[in-house]
Amino acid sequence: MADKGMSSSRKHNLKSLILQVAKDLLAAEEIEKAETRERYMEDKCPPLVLPRTAEELKALCRELHEKIDVVDEERYILERKVDLVVMEVAELNFKALLGSKHKVTMDLRANLKQVKKEVKEEDKELRDVGDWRKNIEDKAGMGGRKKMFETEG
């Protein structure tokens, strides 16, 4: 209700003042970030003193390589921790979407129809062949083939 009584020039003036304050706050925050970054770099990266001899240069290189190895190990460990947290978050999101993760085990054999197998006489004869060498000798030659055809027909 108080806004109805305020003129448009007054609204414009207040709006510009608010924007000016916000601009000043952003500039101060930017300067603070730059100073923080500068302090961090001074702490972590001391000024480089270039050696005068080859031996001093080699020692400096070894020292820098050792520091690089330590930093790489820390980075690797942190990446693994982050990956584990990301996987856990994804799993929890999945669990929240689908409910609890319980495995369904189906007994497929229970759904099958039970059939009693009838044993045919022909199958019995095939199983009870006996000595196979004797059968081969009986069927050998023309007489054996004739016997085979006569028994089938």
From TrEMBL:
Single Gene Ontology MF annotation: actin binding
Keyword Transmembrane helix attributed: no
Keyword field: Actin-binding, Coiled coil, Muscle protein
Any one of the GO BP annotations: cardiac muscle contraction
Any one of the GO CC terms: troponin complex
InterPro entries: Troponin, Troponin_I, Troponin_sf
Gene3D superfamilies tied to this protein: 1.20.5.350, 6.10.250.180
Pfam families attached to this UniProt entry: Troponin (PF00992)
UniProt feature coiled coil, ranges: 19-74
Keyword Glycoprotein (UniProt): no
Function: Troponin I is the inhibitory subunit of troponin, the thin filament regulatory complex which confers calcium-sensitivity to striated muscle actomyosin ATPase activity.
Family the entry assigns: Belongs to the troponin I family.
Stated name of the protein: Troponin I
